[in-house]
Design the sequence.
């Protein structure tokens, strides 16, 4: 369907907020990611604004995430003709997976593997076992397609904000403690950060596929 691999275009990081592509773009290769979406409500966004405003006093270049999710896979590359069989395999694997509730209320600082980006996130503190069950099914599909499986001993989390570079030194320690205090003292934060996981989503290139849980 697509011609053979062509020379990758120059990766101009200025076009996407200074982010550096973690694998080369090739014609016919589709960046693919499996995750559980999180639909942010107004009160969650109010909490996020309070956290971001405080974190920016330490790292001014932090910006809010445009959408929220919990990853169930690493970013992998699919050939175009693999997309539909891959999604069908995910649907087959997820057919018996149940909906569940989880809590994400522990502030944590993350970087990507290359240390080119830093994230402020909320780590899952209950529901971890159910997320591991989902990852186990996703990993089986990854193995079928000879793709990279998820991290060993993963930290499931919702990324809230990010910046270019490794900013752990500025954000961990005092800043992290103060961010956790903001979460703990936020009105109804216990209920606010208890979430229903009702679907798994696969994004491949510009295509989205939703897989409801039972």
Sequence:
């Amino acid at each position: 369907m697509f011609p053979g691999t062509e020379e990758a275009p120059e990766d101009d990081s200025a076009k996407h907020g200074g982010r550096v592509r973690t694998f080369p773009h090739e014609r016919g290769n589709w960046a693919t990611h499996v995750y559980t979406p999180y639909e942010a409500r107004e009160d969650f966004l109010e909490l996020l604004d309070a956290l971001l405003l405080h974190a920016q006093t330490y790292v001014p270049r932090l910006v809010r995430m445009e959408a929220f999710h919990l990853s169930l896979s690493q970013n992998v590359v699919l050939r175009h003709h693999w997309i539909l069989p891959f999604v069908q395999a995910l649907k087959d694997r997820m057919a018996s997976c149940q909906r569940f509730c989880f809590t994400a209320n522990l502030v944590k600082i993350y970087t990507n593997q290359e240390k080119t980006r830093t994230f402020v996130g909320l780590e899952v503190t209950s529901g971890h076992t159910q997320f591991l069950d989902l990852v186990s099914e996703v990993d089986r599909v990854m193995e079928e397609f000879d793709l990279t499986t998820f991290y060993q001993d993963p930290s499931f989390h919702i990324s809230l904000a990010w910046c270019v570079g490794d900013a752990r030194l500025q954000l961990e320690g005092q800043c992290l403690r103060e961010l956790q205090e903001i979460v703990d003292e936020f009105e109804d934060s216990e209920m606010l950060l208890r979430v229903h996981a009702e679907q798994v989503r696969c994004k491949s290139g510009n295509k989205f596929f939703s897989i409801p849980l039972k």
Q: What stands out?
A: The radius of gyration is 18 Å. Residues 1-16, 19-23 have pLDDT under 50 and may be disordered.
